[in-house]
Amino acid sequence: MEKNTIDGFNYYAVEPKNQNESKKVILIYHGWGGSTSGYRDLAEEIAEEGFHVIIPEIVNHDTRQPLANPFEAKTIQMYFWETIMTTIDEFPDFIKALGIIGEDVILIGSSMGGCIANGIFAREQEVGGLVNINGSGSFVLSERMFRERDYREAMSGTVRKRLMEYDPVERPIGPSPVLLMHGDCDEVMPIEGQRDYDHYLKKEQKKNAKFLVYEGVNHQITRDMVGDLIGWLKRV
């Protein structure tokens, strides 16, 4: 896995030995408090199937002004959604710097990265596909659940309005395929955010969307998930 910098963006890339016919580029977004290096094995496994894989560094992580105590409650509350929103906003400039177009990109995200990928997918209608693993496509609902779980006050109208600007369930649905994956025992990112987005897709009669729920799985990526993910990518 090779580190690169272009136009101020840092990212890691894994080149396939033999590019497949799809020519798709896979962008992987990691979770809160994680790092690009934590997804090396997954990136290399996907590259073995002939895909070019890119893992961007995310603001407030790796070398981009990392937070001192990312898992401290107040730090999460202050920076979680802002990190997601900033990364969504950066996407057009990032792929422009890379010289690739949206329709050639399949977004994969885990946990916070799943929120990022879903947010980009909802905004950039031409993107080639989405895989949201243990994330959420319903931002306002997820924030409400976070606050209830942590015994915090209800979100203000200002916070709600800000989240709605990025919330996938508030935006039209594009034509590209979607794969949602979530463990039914997730104690970190409640599955309800995925269920709500899946309900939204069904309500809008989106045909090329699939929601896989993994029984007894907490907030993790299992081998079954990886197998299902790669099988889906090969079909796409």
General description of the model:
The protein has about 240 residues and is an alpha/beta fold. It has helices at about 40-45, 75-100, 110-125, 140-150, 155-165, 190-205, 225-235, and strands spanning about 1-5, 10-15, 25-30, 50-55, 105-110, 130-135, 180-185, 210-215. The radius of gyration is 17 Å and the shape is globular. An eight-stranded mixed sheet has the order 1-2-4-3-5-6-7-8, sandwiched between helices. The protein contains seven helices and eight strands, in the order βββαβαβαβααβαβα. α2 crosses α3 (about 110-125). The protein has a single domain, classed as Rossmann fold (3-Layer(aba) Sandwich). The model has no long low-confidence stretch (mean pLDDT about 95). The two termini are about 25 Å apart.
Low-confidence stretches: none
Name of the CATH class: Alpha Beta
| Contiguous helical run count | 7
Residue share in β-strands: 15-25%
C-alpha Rg, in Å?
17 Å
Structural class: alpha/beta
